[in-house]
Amino acid sequence: MASLADAGLKFTTLPHPAPASDETREAVLANPGFGTNFTDHMVVIEWTEGQGWHNATMGPREPIALDPAAAVLHYAQEIFEGLKAYKQADGSIALFRPKANAARFNRSAERLAMPTLPENLFVEAVERLVQIDRAWIPDAEGASLYLRPFMIATEAFLGVRPAKSYKFIVIASPAGNYFKSGAPAVSIWVSEYTRAAPGGTGAAKCGGNYAASLVPQGEAIDRGHDQVVFLDAAEHKWIEELGGMNLYFAFEDGTLLTPALTGTILAGITRDSLLTLAREEGLNVVEGRYSLEQWREDAASGKLVETFACGTAAVVTPVGKVSGRDVEFTIGSGGPGQLTQKLKNRLVAIQRGEAEDTHGWVHKIG
Ligand SMILES: Cc1ncc(COP(=O)(O)O)c(C=O)c1O
């Protein structure tokens, strides 16, 4: 894998004329919320056909100039990632499995006919941003610095073909604890809409997937639910995932099932980490198919004891209630279950450096 040096790239650091004052930053960090506040800097790396990746800069976070004909604005050639930097128990800072994000970014790039980025360059860009903006990592328990690497097609051309120029950018946003203590389990709405079809872009992290999920997510909210769950496109029968999280189902016999990666759901890094941790717990972990009808039956009979959603933003979230056009059921007691809590605790302890990292997942950056 090419390193920064192999790629022939040297970062230029541009001066920042007006970084946030200590008071401003501390006010943000006291109540960071999620996705609304941003750090001082950003990374930009450019790609053009023939030249490849070049012009890597670390500079002030600022608006980007785009030609109104830029391909991203018309044909949605855009992909992104989401990962977090955590303060560790020993005071250092670490990313969680950033190489997995880099690999997924490249899989998304390939699906969207965009150039891939050397994995080490992706990781170094993120590391550099965390280092320069380390004062923006909140201290509170459960808080982190959310990193958003993304790529857009910048070529000014009104024709449907892959663009010949791109920008890779990384921005960062301090994030509070997604879990309010004592929060009940989430309630989810089974959508009539489809998120992804076989052969489509469901396994890619491209903006278009999320644009298409806004109406179904809005429907869920309007009906008083927190999240939307999507079924498969072909039979409208098999459970796929939520708008931004993967799902797990826990059974009384010690089986833990998650929908298999068939190409229509996103290969979550949290999902993958939990596969490993659950196997270590001695559970019979299965990647397979699970229908809405079976889910309802198993919840009613007590065979299904817990359901939880997982992803970088909310880590592990219990699902308490499921509603749809023809169904309505409660899982277990409707509140957080024991296994959900146990797996969440194990994962968070590793991410925070409070438990031994036996899998090489914690990527320290000093
Ligand atoms: C559609 C979708 N599924 C699942 C996930 C969970 O993935 P991860 O655990 O890598 O955050 C995300 C979030 O990135 C997502 O957007």
Automatic annotation (TrEMBL):
Pathway: Amino-acid biosynthesis; L-valine biosynthesis; L-valine from pyruvate: step 4/4; Amino-acid biosynthesis; L-isoleucine biosynthesis; L-isoleucine from 2-oxobutanoate: step 4/4; Amino-acid biosynthesis; L-leucine biosynthesis; L-leucine from 3-methyl-2-oxobutanoate: step 4/4. It comes from the Bacteria. The keyword Acetylation does not apply. One of its GO terms (molecular function) is transaminase activity. Pfam families: Aminotran_4. Its EC number is 2.6.1.42. PROSITE patterns: AA_TRANSFER_CLASS_4. It catalyses: L-valine + 2-oxoglutarate = 3-methyl-2-oxobutanoate + L-glutamate; L-isoleucine + 2-oxoglutarate = (S)-3-methyl-2-oxopentanoate + L-glutamate; L-leucine + 2-oxoglutarate = 4-methyl-2-oxopentanoate + L-glutamate. The keyword Transferase applies. Keywords: Amino-acid biosynthesis, Aminotransferase, Branched-chain amino acid biosynthesis, Pyridoxal phosphate, Transferase. Its cofactor is pyridoxal 5'-phosphate. Belongs to the class-IV pyridoxal-phosphate-dependent aminotransferase family. Acts on leucine, isoleucine and valine. This is Branched-chain-amino-acid aminotransferase. The gene is ilvE.
